[in-house]
Amino acid sequence: MGHPVLQVQEITGGYMKGKPVLHRVSIDIQSHEMVGLIGLNGAGKSTTIKHILGLLDPFEGTILLGGMKRKDSPAEYASRMSYIPETPLFYEHLTLWEHLELTAMAYQLNQSDFEKRAKELLQEFRMERMVNWFPSTFSKGMKQKLMIINAFLTDPALYIVDEPFVGLDPRGIQSLLQMLEKKKREGASILMSTHILATAEQYCDRLILLHEGRVVLRGTLADLRQQTGMERASLEDIFLTVTEVQRNG
Amino acid sequence: MADLNQLWKKRLWGFWEDAMRYLRIIVMGYVYFPILLLIGLAFLYQYLTRQLPSSFPLGWILSFFLAWLLARSRPRTFLEEADLIFLRPVHHQMGTYFRKAVIYSFFIYSIQLLAFLALLSPLLGIYLAGSGQILPFLIPLLVLLLWNLILARQEMRAQQPLLLFGYKMIRFLLNLIVCLQIFQVIPLYWVVDLTVLFIIAFLSWRKGKEENYNWTFLLQVERKKKTSFYSYIHWFMETPEQQTTMAHRRNLRFQFLRLPYQPRSTYFYFYLKSLVREKEVFYPYIRLTMISTALMFWHVPLYISLLISVLALLLNGFQLYQVWPRLDSFWFHLYPLPLRSREDGFLRTLFVLLTIHITAMSIVTLWSQGFGKGGLLWLVGMFFLAGWVYVGIRKKIRIHL
Predict the structure, then answer these.
(1) Which of B349, B230, B364, B236 lies closest to B291 in space, CA to CA?
(2) Where's the ABC transporter domain (chain A) (predicted)?
(3) Enclosing domain of residue A145
(4) DSSP B264
């Protein structure tokens, strides 16, 4: 384990000051670590991610990325992370290649490095044939692949991955997971929000279970089993039990 | 079908309720600047039409223009994407719905036609001078409009795109023949005209009874009509209904759109490609550039040339600038770039496109009216552009950051 790359410290936040969605949420992620963010729909996963990305400002608490607050230097803060959104968000006016070129320019990549990396990723995700296509003509899975390739073009300290498997074919899922593992080995941190609990159980070093804007469980799978007293239970069993118990008060 | 009649009424009112909101803002004068520009251009246009030589082929030009305008008239149906699922199964009960669409479209296009004739009035004056009456022009054009709409309704049953294009071309040619007669370019045979038009309309109606509508095409036409309406509004203000259509511009990819890889020009890269590819923005830009450049062939006093150039630049810049709030993206908030660089990229794009515009106008002036006049036009134009884009527009777009 290295130093903490991301430190979310006791944040309370949301969309309206009087109605916070998150309540004193804390997350820390080390280098060489993949953390799974799990929870029911509306638990606050996407809101947490929006705060980390800097799209929302917390009402209370602080977020440090590589020891730096966003307001200290927004551009430098942004350069330290890469994001794969749940819903593909693309530019209608640009082709696949132009999306990659634009991202590479925005992140100040060297042109030859960009071209080499882009070609490798296009090959890995079987998208070479579509480089001159507009994403609006893509299938859902292809759009998601564009988001993934875009995110892996840069080499940031933190990858934020929100529901990345939606629409991906099995080979695409495998490529994505291998890529995340590789980045982790190289020292990156990964925060992955997902509903695919079997994958989270298999790939994540630690898990954070959010429920109604609060962290209700955190740690390795062994820690979660210990905290719930459910020895040998799968992550899915723990998840279902905890969220059911919480619902019943 | 009472429900389908209600549906027509509901959709028609729904559209006009929304449209009136925008039209009210325009008429009330909150967006007076583009209106003033248009009035300015109208005066210049009147001035220029007075300079036309007697050999100018006005009848041909007016006939081509009106024939094209009539041929592209298709009924507005107010159909929506979901109708493909919900209305298609009951299409055989939609005769009244489509008839209403034709009647409504005739009414609306008649107003448009009158507006066009009013716009052409300085030119029409040459024809009116003899008789002094507009009706001999107007009535045949209205008959032709109704004929086009009736046929266009039946054409929307054709399944092949080539066939649709073919029908439109046939209508265009027939329109042209009739218009040439109206403008006395060729002799008038109104009995023959009416007989031919009637026979074609009858054959088309009889053939149409046997076929179903091409719903994909119906929806496509409706989308285009809606987009076209909001494109006019777009000249005055930004609307959320504005739909955009993309052109790949492969032919430009290796020339104009092949921008060098320069990280400091990230936003310029984005905006230039986006503006050139967006038909609703780029086509008006090209049209305005070409028309204003063509106007420079006229030998007019220098102050008139300068006035035309500045007005044309303002109009073009204004319509380009309107895309600023729309061409925003979630990703811009995540890029490790200062927010100000987005503003710089956009202004640079405007400056480049408008520089091309003023340069084209200056080259024509230089060629037709001499080096001194052309050079001066370019210098004044560039000076004006630098000030307007980097000070005037910068001030406006800062509000949106």
Answers:
(1) B364
(2) 6-237
(3) 84-155
(4) G
Distance to chain B for A174, nearest Cα, Å: 26
- pLDDT of B51 > 80? The answer is no
Same domain, B170 and B270: no
Task: Show which of B198, B232, B266 is a domain's final residue.
Answer: B232
So what's the ipTM on this one?
0.90
Say whether both A185 and A237 belong to one domain: yes
Chain B contact set for A54 (CB, 8 A) = 333-334
Whether residue A11 is found in the same domain as residue A92: no
- Does one domain contain both B183 and B265? no
Q: Would you call A54 an interface residue with chain B, using a CB distance cutoff of 8 Å?
A: yes
- Span B50-59, average pLDDT: 74
Residue of A242, A175, A170, A179 lying closest to A212 (CA atoms): A242
Q: What is the pLDDT of residue B361?
A: 95
**Residue B70 above 80 pLDDT?**
yes
Residue A155 sits at the chain B interface (C-beta within 8 Å): no
Full domain range(s) for residue B94: 2-232
Domain boundary among A155, A178, A206: A155
Higher per-residue confidence, A139 vs B210: A139
List the 130-149 stretch of A: residues with Cβ below 8 A of B: 134, 136
**Averaged pLDDT, B318-340:** 88
